[in-house]
Every structure is written in C-alpha cells, then in structure tokens.
Design a protein that fits this description.
about 120 residues, alpha+beta, two-stranded parallel ribbon, 5 strands, three-stranded antiparallel β-sheet
Length: about 120
C-alpha cells in the first residue's frame, strides 16, 4: 500500500481553519466525533467522491478512486475540522512513517492552535 498526501484535502483543510471552521475538542474525542459509515455514505450519495475526498488527507494509490478504501486520514465531520481528528491523523501518520501526511497535519494543527489562541486572546 502506498499512501500519499491528498493535496486537495490539505488545501481544503487550510481554508477551513483560516475561516475558523474548526472544533477545538479534546484529544480523545475523535471516536465520538468522526463521521459514521452512514454519514460517509450520505456524503457520497449526495455529493460524490470528489466532495468525500476533501475530508481525507491521505490517498492510497492501490485502491480505486471511487472507493472508501482509497481515502485515509479523516480530519473532520464534513462540516468542520476537528482538533481531535488532526491529532489522531498526526499520530497514525507518524506511526506508519507517512512523513508528507504527518508534516501536513502538523501544519494544520499549528494553524488551528494559532487561530484558537488568537480567538481566546480577543475575548
């Protein structure tokens, strides 16, 4: 299996964070916040794999583009970026030595932390 960075998803995630479309949740919340298989199926049925792909930072070039198995490292709930999703993706990418994905997620995590700190300071 060869998994590499999904550049479109990375750009999409940066845009969402820049628009403050993120949930600053707890590290261990991803199992509760990650989209269910039913949620994934609804997105695919309604918007197709092009939209679905925007929410996965990795792609497996050994799996067909029009399958869920092609997309790895989810980071949000099809509405917002989730901090817990980024942390889970960063950890898994590091464990599997997908350095391009790990670096991209670390960048997103840094952006999210900066945006969150700025928002807190403005209060």
């Amino acid at each position: 299996m060869t998994v590499k960075l999904n550049d479109r998803a990375f750009e999409h995630a940066k845009q969402l964070v820049g628009e403050e479309r993120f949930v600053y949740d707890e590290r261990d919340a991803w199992s509760e916040h990650r989209p269910s298989a039913a949620d994934e199926n609804r997105i695919i049925e309604k918007h197709g794999f092009d939209e679905y792909a925007l929410w996965y930072l990795g792609v497996d070039d050994e799996a067909a583009d029009d399958t869920k198995g092609h997309y790895k490292f989810p980071y949000g709930d099809f509405r917002d970026v989730h901090r817990c999703g980024l942390l889970a993706a960063e950890s898994r990418a590091g464990q599997r030595k997908y350095f391009d994905i790990e670096l991209a997620v670390a960048h997103l995590h840094g952006m999210l932390e900066a945006m969150h700190s700025t928002a807190r300071a403005a209060r």
